[in-house]
């Protein structure tokens, strides 16, 4: 069923150049060929259209307002990235954000002095949820999609039960500073939101983490956990830590979202899918092993920019999910056809290759 | 082989898009919404009934029958009907069954607590014996089987139904009627008149018009108004918007458009911020008060003056209104209506007359009443509704405070 006609989009595979591998040293081309290529193009495209609709969007304050809104999603996407790249899913983050905001409102109940103790409690709770997700998935061998679906329902139901359906209490002003306020009086920009600062720090931290030995192990685990286990990786520990990372990211996102808009009964609903969408749009492969943190962050920016664009175009809210779905499918399909999401030819696994056969049999 | 596959995928998606259009078109709603989003002021025919609109607006000015300090017992132009056929000898042993659509939002949570407290009082008085409730969690199929279960069990002496949707639940309500026990429907209606009484406040048109009238009165001609709506397609909410379109259409206000927010504070704040980036917003019309405070914060954070706003009688909004001295109104979808169905059940089982359609009063809270309502609800949580009407019930205030 293979076509004898070479596809124009992937000439290097068909024309083996002597000496120079399949990837050329051209930096522009290599950026475009990396996972971040398509999403960058899409993001620039969306920003360009926004600029034509609303030129004042890039004038500072509106851009900072956008940054404030997108920061929680960026952080959630980074958390989700850690889990997805290790070959798992975390569906519990939306419920966790909701639960954390409700817990914060109930425990703080408007008292300033409670702000930091409660943030401590929230981080501990996030840690606990991450540990449960991770250990149930790795040690009890429940598929993560089931584990985190369960956690999602448990948290949702527990919060409903605890609050009787309507959250009570109030967040303190001190708590809301992180999501709502920022460094005032900055020239041109007006205000640098704390949310932007926090998201930037976490992004930088995540980039460094992925370059550390842990990050490389995480990537290797997602690519092939059997191989990783044979090379001495404690797979359960690596993956559990990824779940903990995701839950802690959701906790930080909850602090920012609660700060941004206060407590409503609907907070956090559907965020897990927005976060997964962001990660996938960034070209991170479901199933693990490929993709970069920066791509996930760009994916988050793109998803939020898309919402902004729809709003600027006065697209009816009823049709927005449809448009969003089409754009996501188109972007990922385009990226995978261009080869963004493929391993370079030399690294691609070929199960039918004769020399790999002997390796397979002793394993079973 | 590869190129045809791409073509195939492309053709498939194209088909999908095209069929999506063709299935949507006959309903007429998306087409109308296209224009509506940018502020079209012609109400969608599917959701607008001129006669009903006029009736509801007129009902706002009619003095209801019944005790003035117990609005849940009042009725507007009631047509009293005889219920002696349902009278039973031992009401103190009667079982009243309640099929609830859900408690999925704070308004329903508040109402359900009030209902439970009312039940306790009625049980103490010996007007009913036992109260059973089921919660369908907004699932029509679940509610149909809940009602069927009540009918099959055969030990309900009266069935109260708060339908989750109108058309789908109609046959289930009719099944309950056929079982011979008295049926009471409240809040959303069904397309049948087999129940003994249908209890509801005046309705969505009156709500939307109260809010829109206030904006028209308090804004100068040419001012801009942004409408924030929860969801499309829910009749009580669509009626509010249809009435507002009608009122704004006859005014000189400029409606910037409407946005669906799902009542989510973060979305509301973001959407309002974006509108503020593009120009002035002088007034905010909301079809429900959820997240009104987040919308107001968008004005604070952008350093702009507060808009004239219509929220709801939810306390977070009313407290903000008081603190910031806003020009505002709280339209009310009377939460105290949750008391009436159980009281009606007691009346029917005692063979007393009830109105065939029990239209409860529905009056917005205006500035002169604000302090009074805040005072009465001072201990209540912020997502509580001021006109919950349970101040005289035995569990007040703990039942609502520690929910």
From TrEMBL, chain A:
Topological type in the membrane: Multi-pass membrane protein
InterPro entries associated with the record: ABC_transp_permease
Keywords: Cell membrane, Membrane, Transmembrane, Transmembrane helix
Region (Disordered): 1-24, 344-364
Location (main, coarse): membrane
Membrane spanning stretches: 31-51, 63-84, 114-132, 139-159, 192-210, 241-261, 319-336
Biased composition annotated in UniProt, kind: Pro residues: 1-10
Compartment(s) of residence: Cell membrane
Domain of life the protein comes from: Bacteria
Designated name of the protein: Ribose transport system permease protein
Species annotation: Nocardiopsis terrae
From TrEMBL, chain B:
Record domain Periplasmic binding protein: where: 98-316
Cited SUPFAM superfamilies: Periplasmic binding protein-like I (SSF53822)
Xref: InterPro entries: Peripla_BP_I (IPR028082), SBP_2_dom (IPR025997)
Signal peptide extent: 1-22
Coiled-coil intervals: none
Keyword Protease attached: no
Keywords: Signal
The organism's place on the tree of life at top rank: Bacteria
Subcellular location: Cell envelope
PROSITE patterns: PROKAR_LIPOPROTEIN
Family: Belongs to the bacterial solute-binding protein 2 family.
Entry-linked PANTHER family: D-ALLOSE-BINDING PERIPLASMIC PROTEIN-RELATED
Protein name: Ribose transport system substrate-binding protein
Species of origin: Nocardiopsis terrae
